[in-house]
Specification:
With 272 residues, this protein is an alpha/beta fold. The protein has a domain at 32-159 and 175-207 and 261-271: Vaccinia Virus protein VP39 (Rossmann fold, 3-Layer(aba) Sandwich). Helices cover 47% and strands 19% of the residues. The chain has helices at residues 6-13, 20-27, 38-45, 63-72, 83-95, 134-144, 164-174, 183-192, 206-214, 219-231, 233-240, 242-259, and strands at residues 53-57, 75-80, 102-106, 119-125, 145-158, 196-202, 263-271. The longest helix is centred in the last third of the chain and has 18 residues, at 242-259. The protein is globular. The termini are far apart. The chain binds S-adenosylmethionine (SAM). S-adenosylmethionine (SAM) binds next to strand 2.
């Protein structure tokens, strides 16, 4: 630990080249961040249409799968290991009147219930960090995708700004496989099972900035929730259980870490 020099003190407390107003005018303006809808737009740009079959791995309650099937008129299969969510997905598919061209089934990326080369596009949003054997999961995606098919991956990686103790808490609490948090590991694994990486697009904090600016899903609200939950821990734990208290804190931190660059959401287009 070094003592501050006069030069450091002068830099910190002396005058900047710019006035405060000039500085805020430069920094407190929107950089036109892209919204999360960019992901479906990217799928549109890859050429998906009504004659195609889409697989959504880790579909949860199929809200995205349904929206994609409605927008593109394609057939679709959603797969997720959580039976409760698949029951919700099936009810939502029926309610949307899509039962004739959509299905949601319990399953894992490591054993996809689909025939070889039967899928035109794969939508893989925010789920690969839970997969213990990434190579096995991506190899299955490669198997079910037809030659010339494309896989759109949205995945959040940890950056060099993430501290070891911060990582340990969120990985342990949220069921995240530590090695999958590396972009280099993801890319080498994808190539090792036969995929080519056609595009890599670092979304970074853009979705978070967009939601903050339009007020729909504020990360600043998550920051405030963390502060309140920490101050009120003793009262909340008996109500929530320690497990769910930690999951809620970790979920808020996930958003804050995306905003401040400790986590970097990234979109890939993989081709077979
Ligand atoms: C963060 S959620 C994302 C859900 C959805 N794709 C979305 O973007 O809203 C992660 C999902 O991955 C699912 N998941 C976890 N491990 C999986 C596996 N081995 N195979 C398929 N899905 C898995 C979870 O059950 C959960 O629904």
């Amino acid at each position: 630990m070094s003592n501050p020099t006069d030069q450091t003190l002068a830099a910190v407390y002396g005058k900047m080249e710019l006035s405060e107003e000039e500085f805020y005018a430069l920094t407190d303006r929107s950089l036109a961040p892209r919204p999360s809808g960019m992901l479906a737009d990217k799928l549109a740009g890859l050429g998906i249409g009504a004659h195609h079959h889409l697989l959504d791995v880790g579909c949860r309650d199929a809200d995205h799968t349904i929206a994609l099937a409605q927008r593109f008129g394609c057939t679709a299969l959603g797969v997720d290991p959580v039976a409760q969510r698949i029951a919700q997905a099936q009810a939502a598919i029926a309610a949307a009147g899509l039962g004739d061209r959509m299905q949601a089934v319990v399953g894992y990326i490591e054993a996809i219930p689909a025939a070889d080369a039967s899928v035109d596009f794969i939508w893989c949003r925010d789920m690969l960090n839970h997969v213990p054997e990434l190579a096995a999961g991506l190899a299955e995606c490669h198997r079910v995708l037809r030659l010339g098919g494309k896989m759109l991956v949205y995945q959040t990686f940890s950056t060099e700004l993430m501290e070891a103790n911060e990582a340990a808490f969120i990985y342990e609490t949220m069921g995240i496989v530590a090695k999958n948090q590396s972009a280099a590991f993801f890319e080498s694994t994808a190539r090792s099972v036969g995929f080519a990486i056609a595009e890599r697009d670092a979304v970074a904090s853009e979705w978070r900035e967009f939601w903050e600016e339009d007020g729909s899903r504020k990360t600043s609200g998550q920051l405030l929730r963390i502060a309140r939950m920490r101050r009120n821990r003793a009262a909340l734990i008996p109500l929530l259980t320690e497990t769910h208290y930690n999951i809620e804190i970790a979920d808020c931190l996930w958003g804050v870490y995306q905003m401040i660059g400790k986590l970097c959401p990234t979109v890939y287009v993989l081709t077979r």
